[in-house]
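Course assignment 3, question 2. Fill in each field.
Student: A.L.
Task: Predict the tertiary structure for the chain below.
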Amino acid sequence: MRLLAFDTSTNWLSVACGADEAWHVRGEPAGQAHSERLLPLVDAVLADAGWSLGSLDGIAFGAGPGSFTGVRIACGVAQGLGLGADLPLMPVPTLQALAQTAWRVHLATHVVACLDARMREVYVAAYAREQGCWNEVLAPAVLPPAEASMSFGGGAAWLGAGGGFAAYPALAAQLALLHVDADAVPDARAIGELAQPRFVAGEGVAAANALPLYVRHRVALTTAERAAGVRL
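Answer field:
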């Protein structure tokens, strides 16, 4: 199954295309330039593979949580490409993609995935891998770093992955994590790997039904709320 996958939920832009275990991956620090750089990288990985958009079987994208603008860009581009090429889409949670990356790089089977959510909060989730599948131990949530806990520990050796640990270094000790990869990102290959069995199972969705995962539903306050001292 030939897939295109990409993620724009963090400052790192990642694009990949592949099938089974063979993947062509491009990535770069994009900052605020995801909308400018995403399609050129899509063209680049397709050229690397020698494929056209029409020869693909599906498109997967990092659905969030993450940068509000970045997640919207990924979803919008996936919808546009999917509609144009009549391809099914697969939204993949970015925190689960972080866990997949940690497994591929570190062989970690118990992962606390954490991204900086700004506004003095983090996006966090926990996953345990059994028989080649990830089980959601802690559903994606947004919360102040001080409220993150390891009540789900169960005696396993957990690895911390993601930029949330770089933004809040005290989190590693707070969660009693022995190892942390604060440079890990929800890369596109991980998104493609997670999407592949779901596409095979027929879980792909039409472009109009592919939606972002917004853990934080409010990203701004009205003028009246700010005047009244309301805080997100």
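Instructor remarks: Strands lie at 3-7, 12-19, 22-29, 58-64, 89-93, 110-118, 121-130, 133-143, 159-161, 179-181. Residues 3-93+186-209 form a domain with the Nucleotidyltransferase; domain 5 fold (CATH 3.30.420.40).
Grade: pending
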